[in-house]
Amino acid sequence: MSSTEHLTGTLDHGPNGIVLRTDGGGMWELDDSRKARKLMGSRVEVVGQRSGFNGFICDQIWRAGHPRPRAFRLRLELLIAAAFVAYGIYASVAGLVSRLG
Predict the structure, then answer these.
(1) Whole-angstrom Cα distance, residue 52 to residue 99?
(2) pLDDT single digits (tens) 69-100
(3) Is 86 exposed, middle or buried, given 0-12, 13-18 or 19+ CB atoms closer than 10 A?
């Protein structure tokens, strides 16, 4: 994988799926995603990595001229910590209820 790239162009149907036709005349084959299919025919901005000769793996895609959406990243370590805290609270409450009942 290469470094992150930011491209602007128009989404179109290509021989192998969705393609991004850039302003400079380039053509990139995008990974097929629901978001890309919804924006077909629109002018878009794409952030992602090159894959092979003309492949592009999208991290984010949005309409050109609109602000870039915030990326949502669920951090696994925070999820695990929250699960431990929730389990601790549950165990404490269950212990108190069993002593009272």
Answers:
(1) 63
(2) 776 666 778 888 899 999 999 999 999 998 88
(3) exposed
pLDDT band at 63 (very low <50, low <70, confident <90, very high): very high
- Which H or E run contains 63? strand 55-63
- Owner of token pair 């990595």: 49
Task: Give Cα 88 to chain centroid, integer Å.
Answer: 32
Domain definitions of the chain by residue range: 4-63, 71-100
- Please check whether the domain covering 4-63 is classified as CATH 2.40.50.140: yes
| pTM check: above 0.70 | no
Cβ pair 56, 76 in contact under 8 A: no
Please report, for residues 18, 20, 26, 28, 79, the alpha-carbon distance to residue 23 in angstroms, rounded to integers and kept in the order given.
16, 10, 7, 12, 41
pLDDT in tens, 40-61: 999 999 999 988 888 998 888 9
